[in-house]
Specification:
Helix content: 10-25%
Strand order of the largest sheet: 10-9-11-12-13-15
Number of strands: 32
Shape: elongated
Largest sheet: 6 strands, mixed
Number of domains: 3
Oligomer: single chain
Strand content: 25-35%
Structural class: alpha/beta
Radius of gyration: 29 Å
Distance between the termini: 31 Å
């Protein structure tokens, strides 16, 4: 392999382009990776992200005004939309970018008019004129960056999404159409199993105000990475989640308040949600459906909540922790979150309380679902303000339709909700369907692919921060925990875990204590929830490049070797502007014993078993050379230099063979 100062210098071992790696997870790569994967030979297992053939009826809405906070060249809201569409095979024609406010809410009369102009009219026009009819769309997904609250003139605060469920019956630009305690939801089941279950959703079968209505979901959270992970988690659950032994699964949790009811105590179900004690009994009755779906249930029936000191499960064991939490229904965690839950990939929850999903983008939301989404929850239904007891989504209804009936998250969320145009919001992928009837779950036997990496100097001297991401869309979904290996050579010798020690798409890891002039080889490995470890690409960094524009270095693990011994030297060249900006580089060796005087090494690299390593961002390249065992006794002076428009650098290394 030739080493010369042109674009070939930054082709990494894995085939990634170094300049692309310098951009943090450029979303356009997702589509290319998706196409390439599906044109390649199929793996032993196949996964269909659209098993019911409904993805073409999902409208994905993003905020075209939302900034590019992660610096990847595309607005973060659009990034979520495009990743979701590519992951679920949603046609790109179903992506709608709206130039709307970057606040999370619209306020008062002016806000209502902006809402009408920026969201309502463009959505109506796109559905009816571009997509062809009001029923061309079955569900709508709002992406990170879209506002989620509206304070309409003359009314209390409302959730924007469930306002838009009745897109064609909202009033007009001047006067909004609301009701004091929310609007009737024709697709709500207040007492599953008592009457006929709700059917699968259709816009005209379950209308609002006599007009077509829609399912709604929101891909949102603390930042763009958390929003993207909602998609990845849902795909993983769709592929692998099953209650059968040996498959990806966990526990179901129920948390009621008024004691360990017997089944005789619950014989008069349903009790309705008009009084606390009655709602408690409905939830306690509904816990059986979690077991009927095949999951082991842990029930906390007393006045304490799971995670509080002294909390006990019904079997007498401690309820101060909730390990391997996959499904949860319960209450009453008002403006609080007990960090007891180990939310697994694919998990779903509904905790009935005021503000249960409020402040979802805050760093410290302090609400049950807001905090849960920060630490791995996949989907959940809740409210952004006071819904009153009978206006909050019903936890038992949500889990019945998601777990036992096998409906999608979008369907289960709306069926659980007694009110529209009220305070309630559904966060998660509306197509997520972990318990789909006739689903054949897969066993996760495939390791994650190599992750993308971006490294940068930390806040203090000698510190390096590594940001990683599994951004390529592959035939089988995956997430993982991060283990970063690093050291002076490919042997590494040191490891550090990701700051967030749970399966994710994105991780950050920090290495400290590096010298000011030090070469480091590193590799970022991901281990998925099933325990498969995917090896990352080996990259290099050199700390000296932080303080000088051009770098040339020659290193070896020792400065003297016995004759007849193979040894390695490593030559490093680069510039802060990128290795392609080097205009010249040299590598020469002088040895009286061999009769060499500034011998040019370049023509001999192919015969010296040279290996090439690049920095993740394309700034550096190293050449590791295996020196054969036939050198004569004597001294060997190795000199290297590098030059670019920004300057030049020189280094030398003397090795004695004795």
């Amino acid at each position: 392999m030739n080493f010369r100062p042109d674009s070939s210098m930054i082709t990494t071992n894995s085939g990634y382009d170094g300049k692309a790696l310098a951009m943090k997870f450029l979303p356009q790569l997702l589509v290319l990776a998706f196409i390439a994967t599906h044109l390649s030979a199929a793996r032993a297992q196949s996964f269909d992200p659209d098993p019911e053939g409904t993805a073409h009826r999902v409208l994905v809405v993003y905020n075209a005004n939302w900034p590019d906070a992660d610096g990847d060249g595309i607005g973060d809201s659009e990034q979520v939309a495009r990743y979701y569409a590519a992951s679920r095979k949603i046609p790109t024609s179903n992506l709608l970018g709206l130039a709307c406010t970057t606040s999370y809410y619209y306020n008062g009369q002016t806000g209502w008019e902006l809402f009408w102009d920026e969201i309502v009219v463009p959505m109506q026009d796109y559905i009816e004129l571009t997509l062809g009819s009001r029923t061309a769309v079955n569900g709508i997904v709002m992406c990170y960056g879209m506002p989620y609250q509206i304070n309409p003139p003359g009314w209390s605060r409302r959730a924007l999404d469930t306002t838009l469920v009745g897109l064609w019956d909202l009033g007009d630009r001047t006067t909004p159409k609301y009701e004091t305690y929310g609007r009737y939801n024709s697709y709500h089941d207040p007492a599953p199993t008592i009457h006929d279950d709700m059917g699968r959703f259709d816009p005209l079968t379950y209308p609002t105000g006599g007009e077509a209505s829609y399912l709604f979901g929101r891909l949102d959270g603390q930042d763009v990475e958390h929003a993207l992970e909602l998609v990845a988690y849902a795909l993983y659950g769709d592929a692998y989640l099953s209650p059968l032994p040996g498959y990806w699964n966990g526990y179901a949790y129920a948390d009621t308040r008024y004691g360990a009811y017997t089944w005789a105590d619950l014989a008069n179900y349903p009790y309705n949600h008009w009084a606390y004690a009655n709602a408690d009994k409905d939830m306690a009755y509904g816990r059986q459906w979690m077991e009927q779906a095949g999951f082991t249930l842990r029930w906390e029936p007393y006045g304490t909540e799971i995670g509080e000191p002294g909390a006990l499960y019904e079997d007498g064991s401690s309820a101060e922790t909730a390990p391997q939490a996959m499904f949860y229904e319960g209450w009453y965690n008002y403006n609080k979150y007990q960090p007891a839950f180990e939310w697994l990939v694919g998990s779903a929850a509904c905790d009935l309380n005021s503000n249960s999903i409020a402040r979802i983008r805050d760093e410290n939301p302090g609400t049950f679902l807001g905090e849960s989404f920060k630490v791995g929850l996949t989907c959940g239904v809740g409210c952004i303000a006071e819904p009153y007891l009978n206006g909050h989504p019903f936890p038992e209804t949500f889990q019945y339709y998601l777990m036992l009936k096998g409906y999608t998250f979008g369907e289960a969320a709306r069926i659980s909700d007694p009110k529209l145009a009220w305070t309630n919001m559904y966060v998660g992928d509306i197509l997520y369907q972990p318990m789909r009837l006739n689903k054949v779950a897969l066993l996760d036997t495939v390791a994650p692919p190599p992750c993308m990496v971006k490294e940068s100097a930390g806040a203090v001297a000698g510190e390096r921060v590594f940001e990683t991401g599994l951004t390529s869309i592959t035939a089988l979904p995956d997430v993982g925990e991060l283990l970063l290996h690093y050291g002076a050579t490919s042997a590494f010798g040191n490891t550090v875990t990701g700051d967030d020690k749970r399966p994710r798409l994105f991780h950050t890891a920090t290495v400290s204590g590096l010298a000011a002039d030090e070469l480091i080889h590193y590799r970022a490995d991901y281990t998925d929830p099933a325990g498969n470890t995917g090896l990352g690409t080996e990259f290099i960094l050199h700390t000296a490049l932080d303080n000088q524009p051009v770098l040339a270095r020659a290193t070896s693990s020792a400065v003297s070797y016995p004759a007849g011994t193979e040894f390695e030297i490593e030559l490093i060249f680069g510039t802060q502007a990128g290795a392609t900006e080097l205009t010249a580089w040299t590598a020469k060796v002088t040895s009286a014993a061999m009769g060499w005087n500034a011998l040019n090494i370049k023509p001999h690299l192919s015969s010296l078993a040279a290996e090439y390593f690049d920095s993740a961002g394309g700034e550096l390249r190293s050449i590791r050379i295996t020196v054969p065992n036939n050198l004569a006794v004597g001294s060997y002076l190795i000199e290297v230099s590098a030059t670019s428009a920004a300057g030049s650098d020189f280094d030398s290394l003397t090795i004695d063979v004795y």
